Amino acid sequence: MSHTVRPHTAIGRRAARSAAVLSATIVALGLGTAPAFAANITVNNGNGTMTHIDDGDRFRVCDTRVNGVGVTGTLGWTVPGVQTRIVKTIQDGGDKGCDYFTYDVNDDLLWFISICDTGASSGCDNKFFRE
Predict the structure, then answer these.
(1) How many CB atoms lie within 10 A of CB 59?
(2) What is the pLDDT of residues 19-53, one digit of tens each?
């Protein structure tokens, strides 16, 4: 299930704060992390996973623990030191199974996927990749 983030709500403020922390993390880590190329990649923060399924550019976000903490998966791209853009954010938690979406990532950009605890500014894991 995809959610629209509204910055004037409590959830929106937490999502905006998480996005700011994620952006800072991406800039810090992106400058020294080699990206993966054209294969399935998964990130895992201990409470959930996000996977880029290269065949069809599908993305899967799964809450993997029954502990009351949902997870938020994020897809974005960056030009380190210049610009970072989040193109899709999806939450999973409180239901059976995983959530999916598709997004064409064929541009020649440095892409990233990230999984974070929903509403938290920590507990994140991310990976960079190129198509």
Answers:
(1) 22
(2) 544 554 444 444 445 555 558 999 999 899 999 99
Q: What is the DSSP letter of 75?
A: E
Give tens-digit pLDDT for 81-111.
999 999 999 999 877 789 999 999 977 899 9
Report, in angstroms and rounded to the nearest whole number, the Rg of the chain calculated over CA atoms: 14
Range of the domain at 94: 10-130
In total, how many domains does the chain have?
1
Complete edge-to-edge strand list for the sheet that includes strand 36-37: 36-37, 125-130, 110-117, 71-79, 83-92
Residue 69 banded pLDDT, cuts 50, 70, 90: confident
Query: What residues have CB less than 8 Å from 26, skipping those under 6 apart?
Result: 76, 78, 84, 112, 114, 126
Domain CATH code at residue 46: 2.60.40
* 3: in domain: no
